[in-house]
Amino acid sequence: MIPPRPEPLAQPRLGLLWFTRVAHSWLDALTVKSYHMLLGQFRLPGMRVFVINDPAWVERMLITEPHNYPKHHLMHEALEPLLGSSPFTTNGPLWQRQRRMLDQAFGHARLGRVFGLMEQACDDMRARLHNGTLDVEGAMTHVTADIVYRTIFSNALMAHEADTLFGAFTRYQQLAQRVIFLRLLHLPRLWLNRSRQRQADIIRGFLAAKVRERFASRGVDEEAQGADILAGLRCAVDPQDGSHLSETEVLDQICMLFLAGHETSASALSWCLYLLAESPELQQTLCHEVDTTTQGGALQAGDVRKLVRLHALFREVLRLYPPVGYFPREAVADQDIRGSQVRRGDALLVFPWLLHRHRRFWSEPDAFEPGRFGPDSATDHPKGAYLPFGLGARACIGAGFAMQEAALILSTLLSHHRLLPEPGHTPRVVGRLTVRSANGIRVRLEPRQRVQPHD
Ligand code: HEM
User: What is the CA radius of gyration of the chain?
Assistant: First the structure.
């Protein structure tokens, strides 16, 4: 089965009209050659950009020499109003300090500890679902935001709060993308900057109030008893100078975790549900795996790793629809990359979307085949050709978190519902901050009788 994907262009296009289209979806810029080449190059006004499609170079940039390929400063410009100073965009000693503190916070709020909070969010999701047509992206965004919110604050996210945050974030994404494109064209963007800041203020204002409340009501000693991520951040101590994170530093990390932690998972899970609805046999296999693992009861923390076929589905969906479709780095020195002269300051793009569908590294690259990640299959792709969570020192801190929540959400859904295609609906894939659908994702839900252990 070849699931929806944008048809690549036969030849690259130029001109303002095309550029405007790409501002809405970067996937529209990709050509047939993009999926074959090992290195690509194009020019933007005032900027040379290289597409690094060679897994060996990807490994060098991300694993062996990350200090020579820091995050591109445009990332910071795009996200700073919302995320403040946080690992998603920082580099050097500042990033090292933030990462040290985050690692401790995640160690404190261990996966097993936050399992119960994730489970409660899944129960609430179940209560919200009805049989009939499901707006998948809306439902997945709500439950993943609720999960990350609960694991940060130990409180549920109310429906009206969720609506306000999603609305502001959707507008922020659109505005941020436009600001960057105008910036690349050296055009004025004052009005857009102001609108973008207003959306950022809505989200940051909401989260700031929650953080302030905790700082006012609990000291660090009391936080040590807590199991959530906020408690972990407040207790984290920098081993280099013994300091704690300030309230502003904590807020920046929380904004980043809240957004990085739900938008990506919501994107991946939405594609999972669409593909499950289109694959009845696979769905049946997974229902069987869930039923036998849970013995008709609820999924336990220790069961998660037993769901090997569910993991294979998730990994294949992350291959076909990597939520972070590309990420930009910057060259710190002049150098030769595969025979091209790269200069200091040039942008280097690593494209999970292209690497995951590259004609040289995958058989049937556009086909949906979860079996390729199944328990009995051998890995035959280079390490640098599969990186939904990035690689090396700057790889995603939430990969284990995302895997656990995916197992919980999918097993909850499969235990109680049958997923069917919505007649006449095919999602149109678009590349924004994450890989989404321009016309939404819809499936139909029907009730499902669980198989009891004795059946
Ligand atoms: C399916 C879900 C997810 C995907 C596909 C994903 C993907 C990624 C990728 C590709 C990066 C590296 C970007 C780069 O190198 O430029 C990254 C970084 C990061 N992710 Fe995730 N992510 C997911 C879920 C999460 C969750 C649930 C959290 C937290 C709760 C999270 C927190 C972070 C953080 C903090 C970083 C920055 C790490 C650093 O630079 O030190 N992510 N993620």
Answer: 22
Task: Ligand 1, residue 229: give the atom nearest the CA.
Answer: 30
Pocket probe mutation, ligand 1, options 94, 264, 314, max atoms within 8 Å of Cβ: 264
Angstrom distance (rounded) from CA 176 to CA 82:
10
Residues with CB under 6 A from ligand 1: 71, 87-88, 99, 148, 256-257, 260-261, 264-265, 268, 323-324, 327, 388-390, 394, 396-398, 401-402
Distances (CA, A) of 285 to 271, 273, 291, 414, 454: 18, 15, 10, 11, 18
Q: What is the pTM of this model?
A: 0.95
Which residues are paired to 418 by β-bridges?
446
CA of 397 to the centre of ligand 1 (A): 6
CB contact at 8 A, 73 and 89: no
Task: Check pLDDT > 90 for residue 163.
Answer: no
List domains and CATH numbers for the chain: 16-447 (1.10.630.10)
Kind of pairing between the strands at 429-431 and 435-437: antiparallel
pLDDT in tens, 3-40: 999 999 988 877 776 777 777 888 998 999 999 999 99
